[in-house]
Structure to design on (84 residues):
């Protein structure tokens, strides 16, 4: 039963990822130059990083004492992104 649930979750994650990529394609289509395209990519990556580190901070208390916490550097970086 767990394997089936994992497959469903994975399928949902893949579908969501492709939806996000389609939206990125729409944004990229509005670029009028290589500089515009590069700037859009940088903004997307910055936003993804920010949300990743915000989620990491949210999960950290749940992972307290677990091996998943890879050290103080990741926490400091997460806090830096949260403050931007």
């Amino acid at each position: 039963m767990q394997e089936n649930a994992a497959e469903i979750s994975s399928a949902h994650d893949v579908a969501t990822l492709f939806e996000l990529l389609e939206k990125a394609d729409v944004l990229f289509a509005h670029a009028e130059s290589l500089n515009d395209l590069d700037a859009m990519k940088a903004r997307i990556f910055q936003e993804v990083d920010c949300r990743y580190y915000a989620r990491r901070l949210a999960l950290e208390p749940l992972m307290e004492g677990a091996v998943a916490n890879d050290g103080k550097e990741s926490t400091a970086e997460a806090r830096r992104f949260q403050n931007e």
Notes: The CA atoms of residues 9 and 34 lie 37 Å apart. The mean pLDDT is 83. The chain is about 80% helix and 0% strand. The two ends are 42 Å apart (CA to CA).
